[in-house]
């Protein structure tokens, strides 16, 4: 049995006496060893490196599905004086229903906010971390004890997946209401009009409590009673795929970029506008897919074999070629 298998031996064995070691061969072997060492090193580096691939796809679901706005904001005003509205370019205006957002009287405080300058830089995007964050539980900011001078608005609302606006205004300012909030008079504990606000959470789409969005933990202070805060947001649907995990490795989310302006409106400054918080959002018609993956071990092995074998054969050929020319040279120089 074993003997019959020896017939298939593809590796020729040449008798030691028939082989000749040359100086050239030795030199080339050293070179090969060096070359191999560096190549294997770079190859290993690439194997360890985790690649991030970006793909831009047209969002085929645009306009036919809905997106939810998840909010947790605290405004330094009494809940009774506030109204929340959502409008979109499709023309539907939704006066946010009572059950979409809960309004709770709380004490206004700035504990737990991160100063804008000290925010974690998101420049180094790490899909692995994002996917892990998305699955993490979020620590809610606690309400402090004290006079209930603010209103915490919390909840989510489903809106058409088109551009739209999310407004928080005082009753009787901007919309027709039976009530007209006085400008400066104190009602109970809260000033009638003070749009100072903290944003604890503002995200679009599936709510991943652990994921930090640009506006999370931010604070805006109103310098006047008639202050208008405007946010312009560009929403980019994003899919993160972490191939290193097998379970729950895809996160469907919406990143957004935001610019904000504030101005005091009314008679004092002769600026046009309505006091309140106005968030205008646009949804980009593309989807970004960020995939994180590492080459498989088999792939790495295959490449290693390829490199080793390739170099061995190539240098062997070179050796033969040089030897060939050297033989010719020797023949004719005699
Ligand atoms: C509104 O409330 C905040 C926080 O309580 C305060 O710092 C700010 O001065 C107030 N603004 C006005 C115009 O009263």
From TrEMBL:
Keywords: Membrane, Transmembrane, Transmembrane helix. Residues 145-317 form the Endoplasmic reticulum vesicle transporter C-terminal domain. The keyword Acyltransferase does not apply. The chain crosses the membrane at residues 21-41. GO terms for cellular component: COPII-coated ER to Golgi transport vesicle; endoplasmic reticulum; membrane. One of its GO terms (biological process) is retrograde vesicle-mediated transport, Golgi to endoplasmic reticulum. Residues 6-93 form the Endoplasmic reticulum vesicle transporter N-terminal domain. Its main location: membrane. It is found in: Membrane. InterPro entries: Erv (IPR045888), Erv_C (IPR012936), Erv_N (IPR039542). Signal peptide: none annotated. Pfam families: COPIIcoated_ERV (PF07970), ERGIC_N (PF13850). PANTHER family: ENDOPLASMIC RETICULUM-GOLGI INTERMEDIATE COMPARTMENT PROTEIN (PTHR10984), ENDOPLASMIC RETICULUM-GOLGI INTERMEDIATE COMPARTMENT PROTEIN 2 (PTHR10984:SF30). This is Endoplasmic reticulum vesicle transporter C-terminal domain-containing protein. It comes from Chytriomyces confervae.
């Amino acid at each position: 049995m074993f003997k019959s298998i020896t017939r298939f031996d593809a590796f020729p064995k040449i008798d030691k006496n028939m082989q000749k070691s040359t100086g050239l061969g030795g030199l080339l072997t050293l070179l090969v060893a060096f070359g191999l060492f560096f190549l294997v090193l770079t190859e290993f580096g690439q194997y360890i490196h985790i690649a991030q691939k970006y793909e831009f796809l047209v969002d085929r679901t645009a306009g036919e599905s809905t997106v939810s706005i998840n909010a947790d904001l605290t405004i330094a005003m009494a809940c009774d004086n506030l109204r929340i509205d959502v409008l979109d370019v499709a023309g539907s205006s939704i006066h946010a229903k009572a059950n979409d957002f809960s309004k709770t009287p709380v004490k206004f405080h700035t504990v737990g906010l991160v100063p804008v300058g000290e925010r974690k830089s998101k420049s180094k995007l790490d899909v692995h971390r994002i996917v892990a964050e998305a699955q993490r539980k979020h620590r809610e900011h606690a309400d402090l004890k004290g006079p209930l001078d603010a209103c915490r608005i919390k909840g989510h609302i489903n809106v058409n997946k088109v551009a739209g606006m999310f407004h928080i205004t005082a009753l009787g300012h901007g919309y027709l209401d039976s009530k007209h909030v006085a400008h400066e008079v104190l009602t109970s504990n809260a000033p009638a009009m003070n749009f100072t606000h903290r944003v604890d959470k503002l995200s679009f789409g599936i709510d991943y409590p652990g994921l930090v969005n640009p506006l999370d933990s931010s604070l805006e202070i109103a310098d006047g009673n008639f202050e208008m805060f405007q946010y312009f947001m560009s929403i980019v649907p994003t899919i993160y795929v972490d191939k290193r995990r097998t379970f729950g490795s895809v996160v469907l989310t919406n990143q957004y970029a935001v610019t904000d302006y504030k101005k005091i409106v009314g008679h004092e400054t002769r600026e046009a506008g309505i006091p309140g918080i106005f968030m205008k959002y646009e949804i980009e018609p593309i989807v970004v897919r960020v995939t994180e993956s590492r080459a498989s071990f088999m792939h790495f092995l295959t490449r290693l074999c390829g490199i080793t074998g390739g170099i061995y054969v190539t240098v062997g050929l070179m050796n033969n070629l040089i030897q060939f020319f050297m033989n010719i040279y020797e023949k004719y120089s005699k």
